[in-house]
User: What shape does this take?
Amino acid sequence: MHDVFISYSTADSAQAETVLDILEKNGIPCWMAPRNIPGGSNYTKEIPIAIRGCQVFVLILSGSAQQSHWVLKELDSAVNMGKVILPFMLEDCQLNDEFNFLLTGAQRYSAYQRKAEALETLISRIRAITGSKP
Assistant: This one.
């Protein structure tokens, strides 16, 4: 089982994998495509199941993420399922109308300013939500 679903644009794969690695090294189980898509299955089947099963939806937010049809669909699903959304901003980007609408009121983590501090705060927040211990 996983506590966190990580949504990202393939253009941000390396940075998403870094976040995944750090969260899991801190004892926070994560789900991320394509790693957790079972062989023979497909994204449209597995992603909604994974979002439904998570407690926290971490959005790796960038200009590229806002251009991704998949990221928008995942975010919309998470909002509709009432998930806690934690946007982890890779860059100082203006939100387009769709993302601005879906993220209104969501606290954002500005990783482009102080990445290590943003990661520590993200880990603390996830632990507070999930009840996981260090």
Summary: The chain has six helices and five strands. Strands lie at 4-7, 30-31, 56-61, 84-89, 109-110. The mean pLDDT is 94. The helical segments are 13-25, 43-53, 63-67, 69-80, 97-103, 115-130.
